[in-house]
Sequence to fold (144 residues):
Amino acid sequence: MIFCLSAETAETSSKTSGGFVAAIINILFPDYENLSGAEQLALREQLQFIIRKTAHFTIYAILGALSFLSVVTYKKIPFFFRLAISSAFCLLYAVSDELHQLAVAGRSGEVRDVLIDFCGALLGIAFFTLLTKVLKFKFIKKYT
Fold:
């Protein structure tokens, strides 16, 4: 999914996020039509930036969660290393994703996006780390 979205040209990607922007504007800004053209453009650009970065963060949170869930069951590897493996995988994928975007028309690779992606992945990993610890504690408490 991440690779496919990154392979979209800048024009296609802008159209995708532009649809979300239009929907949000309709919901949150009922007086949008009363704004000047410059104010409308500024609002659309701000929302598009926020939506695009939130999408980056969210999709990498999912990647982080899935990568953590894929290594958490390896009991022969210490827990810290399972976290490190999962985190390293997400960081490497974020870097490779930005490098991939350099080869796509109109797209750019940015360090800021790597950091946003990696933070999202870390949140996904942290969430499922906490969830597994809570579930493990409840299971142990229930059956001991």
Notes: The two ends are 43 Å apart (CA to CA). The helical segments are 2-6, 10-28, 37-71, 79-102, 111-143.
